[in-house]
């Protein structure tokens, strides 16, 4: 093993060897800690405290005993003997965990940098490398005590030194980037352990509780050795999901619910990194970012991909026609880049990946397409320049029908996306959803005012019947024969933008479909890769084969940047 880096692993033989050196009865008091101990002596005394800590008379005494064990074991990690320092690192981790468990006991531990009173002792709390998004007052939860129910029990972990925790804080309110943090709070991985620093003469050594980011500072140096930190890669995201209200707001977004409208925009799962490629996930009709939970967890849990990518989730009302939803998505992207990269020079602006499920995939395609005169002509009989009306109404109209490929995006992943519409949108349930979806679409009011002020300027097919302007919604625009959608279906991603198609197909369905989207509509010609899974429409993004395929695409995509 290199003297410059020692990865902490479970080494039963080495720990057993260390146990043979145990000298019972060699307890150490705080005043004795001032005496310089050899690494072996420190380890032996730490082992004594480990044995006796559970038998202390109360919680404060037990916590104090675990603290002494952890600090002595940490001191022993400077040993030049591999079997000693590995045993010491493992013991320092165990005793630090027992200390935290004694303090927390199923709740949370509130900490801030500086001196604090914990278990009747003055403890110096140190934050090392934690992101600005967390601020200076945190609540810590032991990662291994979380149920992972929201992620179906799937947990990704990195073994190493220290105790993985979730560091949580309310979202900030004093900077523009605060708008990009989920309102439920900020949750980040952290690793905790106890060490000590010299105290005043005659008072022994002072305990230090370290809370360190395993992302920005993945190593802990002790003497000449570096120890990779343990990390729970899933627990912070689990905590966000457990607190999220989006699960029950998805359908409200379809019918114009204002709660989703207030939440609309892009939200960062990690802190913004100008060097990481954004993977932007766009949910579908009546859905929410909760549908991306398994896929997000898989990307966060892959250390290689997590180092290269940052995940952004889009939240939006899903009641408006496709072209309006495309315009809204562009506005969310513009607002986010204005906050995180106002100068427009970050490497993160290049190589962006959009992943869209259902209608989110159609929006993704339209974001990377160039509008055409045929699209305008499908709705209007006269050129844009000949229209008159309020300037803001005209600007909205232009933004809906005249657009260019969004810069920086070069990979699209379509998942169960009705690129050529869905016949289900016209059935009884679809029509009911359409009627509900007509609420709160302010852009349609702008278009209707322009229509009223310019008689004869709107195509007759949009003035009467089921596709009339006042009756258009997201559901209506997914009907295969809706006039404007018939044209926007022909708008393909710009040259140089790669796209991949993933679809669902249920056994026995004729024609083949996932229960909502026909296979012929979900498989787009020209796709760089195609995958068909046996899954219902809303389960396609969660299917293990889908997730594995997306991860493979991301690995391949990154090698070309």
From TrEMBL:
Protein name according to UniProt: Alpha/beta hydrolase family protein
Keyword vocabulary terms for this entry: Signal
Native source organism of the sequence: Dyella flava
Residues making up the signal peptide according to the UniProt record: 1-27
